[in-house]
Specification:
The chain has about 450 residues and is of the alpha/beta class. It folds into two domains: about 110 residues; about 270 residues, von Willebrand factor, type A domain (Rossmann fold, 3-Layer(aba) Sandwich), CATH 3.40.50.410. The chain has a six-stranded mixed beta sheet, sandwiched between helices. A four-stranded antiparallel beta sheet has the order 1-2-3-16. Helix 2 crosses helix 3, helix 4 packs parallel to helix 10 and helix 7 runs parallel beside helix 8. The longest helix is centred in the first third of the chain and has 44 residues. It is elongated.
Length: about 450
């Protein structure tokens, strides 16, 4: 009877049932704690990987795989301080296929505490970080004011320093030659394409030959006999002829093209030499300006030569922002003395013009006296700005206004948007603006 009652009494079953149930409950709770620890380690690992990939991205193109492995591992270990992560392995992978990129991966394990009871002694931990220069390449044209007023308030010196620093930034943004190209267009009322081009077929010499040359006097005499006496009579006629100078005496300066080619980057057509004077020509008109700036440099990644040119810039002449802007555009598309390297279809290209000027437009081929503001030159400028932006080029404009002038409406409206127009009131602010633009242009894109 007692045995029967014991076997049928369920009041004592709760304790063993609870004892059996507590095992999976504790296992699941312990698993949550272990997974939480692993997640925390993975977050720290990701932060260390991001910092490591950024630091190593600039070095990767110059290192062997062995060197890259050593430096990447050392940097990661300095950034990652989680001793509970075991057997951590770092794998850097550098590639230039469809854009330069560096991927840094990490893998390791973490010893479990509670899950060990369930037969899981460790958890795998891993992550990766990829730094890309993407598939975007930069082409940047710098239209730099070299007019006479740049001699005031230390502006030309500040411009040289700021431009040199910008070139350093852009150089650093390039992993391989060709990732970043830069052209330099010093301008005043004219630009300088180089006097060695005097035999080129894209130059219009008509105005230059009218202005540069000398008169030559030629005497033509005839002898005749007159009257019955047959006396000999000599008659002479003097003729004055204009003789243009040899083209090899040209100083390399170019003025604005015929309207409306003065606001476009149309390639010159050598056949236009035969056009009548009443027709607009695509050729570039030679000019013998006394205020000829330094010779421009087309798209290049010869950073040393660019820095040399910048260091030699000098202030002279009146202000024609239009010709600086249009030749900056010409440098991006090619034509005349400038060649734009072919674009690789595997990349996207960002084309940018940065135009900086300290003054207001005072003179071009047709309008202005070089000292007072010309609304007609501004009108040509506005038209050129519209055409540049319509071509898809990003346009930054900077007014260096140390003299308390009014804000240049034409420069302000010329920028691609309001954030790309800058007005500075002190020379030392030029470097700040150039640095800001350079940072925007060279910023890396991180993908995880």
């Amino acid at each position: 009877m007692l045995l029967h009652r014991f076997l049928h009494d369920h009041r004592g079953a709760v304790a063993p049932m609870f004892a059996l149930a507590i095992i999976p409950v504790l296992g699941l709770t312990g698993a949550a704690i272990d997974y939480s620890r692993a997640s925390s380690i993975r977050v720290s690992m990701q932060a260390a990987l991001d910092a490591t990939s950024l630091a190593m991205a600039k070095l990767a193109p110059t290192l062997t795989q062995t060197q890259l492995q050593t430096k990447t591992t050392a940097y990661f270990q300095a950034m990652f301080n989680r001793p509970e992560a075991k057997n951590v392995t770092i794998t850097p992978t550098y590639s230039t296929t469809a854009g330069s990129q560096l991927t840094v991966s990490a893998s390791g394990t973490m010893d479990t505490t509670f899950m060990n009871v369930m037969g899981y002694s460790s958890l795998n931990i891993g992550s990766s970080s990829t730094v890309k220069w993407g598939n975007t390449r930069l082409r940047v044209a710098l239209a730099l004011d070299n007019t006479g007023s740049m001699a005031d308030d230390g502006k030309i010196g500040a411009l040289k320093t700021a431009t040199t620093d910008l070139l350093t930034q852009l150089k650093a943004a390039a992993t391989n030659n060709g990732d970043v190209y830069v052209s330099l267009i010093p301008f005043a009322n004219d630009v300088n394409v180089g006097a060695t081009n005097y035999t080129a077929n894209w130059i219009d010499w008509s105005d230059w030959e009218d202005d540069n040359g000398h008169d030559t006097n030629t005497q033509t005499c005839t002898t005749t006999k007159s009257g019955r006496s047959g006396k000999t009579v000599k008659k002479c006629t003097n003729t004055t002829t204009w003789v243009p100078d040899n083209h090899n005496t040209w100083n390399g300066c170019i003025t604005d093209r015929d309207q409306d080619y003065d606001t476009l980057a149309t390639a010159p057509n050598p056949a236009d030499v035969n056009l009548p004077d009443t027709s607009a020509s695509t050729l570039f008109p030679a000019d013998q300006s006394d205020y000829c700036p330094l010779q421009m440099m087309g798209l290049s990644y010869n950073w040393s030569s660019m820095n040399t040119l910048v260091g030699q810039m000098y202030p002279k002449g009146s202000t024609n922002q239009t010709i600086g802007l249009v030749w900056a555009w010409q440098s991006l598309v090619g034509g005349g003395p400038l060649t734009a390297p072919a674009m690789d279809p595997n990349y996207q290209y960002q084309q940018v013009i940065i135009l900086i000027s300290d003054g207001l437009n005072t003179q071009d081929r047709w309008y202005g006296n070089g000292s007072s503001v010309s609304t007609q030159v501004d009108a040509r400028m506005a038209k050129a700005c519209t055409n540049v932006k319509a071509s898809g080029i990003t346009l930054y404009t900077i007014q260096v206004n140390t003299g308390g002038d009014a804000t240049s409406t034409v420069l302000q409206n010329c920028a691609s948007d309001t954030k790309k127009f800058f007005s500075v009131t002190a020379s030392n602010q030029i470097g700040t603006v150039f640095n800001q633009i350079g940072t925007n242009l060279s910023q890396l894109r991180i993908s995880k």
